[in-house]
Amino acid sequence: MSISVGDKLPGTTFIKATADGPQPVNSEEFFAGRKIALFSVPGAFTPTCSARHLPGFVDKADELKAKGVDEVACTAVNDAFVMGAWGKGAGADDKVTMLADGNGEFVEALGLTMDGSKFGMGTRGQRFSMIVDDGVVEQLNVEEPGAFNVSSADYMLERL
Fold it and tell me: Across the chain, which distance is largest between two alpha carbons, in Å?
């Protein structure tokens, strides 16, 4: 069963690339007392993720913040070095926090994994977005396989 609106996010540890190297980010601390727009992509540098998903949130970060979002974050089943390089290349610095879920523990705990093995990607996270308010899912938008509609920054903005 996957996570639903009204559920508390499970505790996990993300890894974030920093100037001092990879740093752990405790999810319970990260989401505590704040409203976070979180989105998940199947993989950094993949076509839809790089051409539309991440750029949409980079472009709309200020609009999301104007509607009460404290921080915008992206997660994927990639390592922190890949997430950091992808974010830098996409101009996400100071717009979108890149959180690596390298072992897929977060998406597994959410019940939102997908099997990308036919593409050589193994188990990944589904494409989704959510608004998390003080650790509780307030809005959840999970895409159908292969689609990119309800997890976009524009879709999220329309519902805030």
Answer: 41
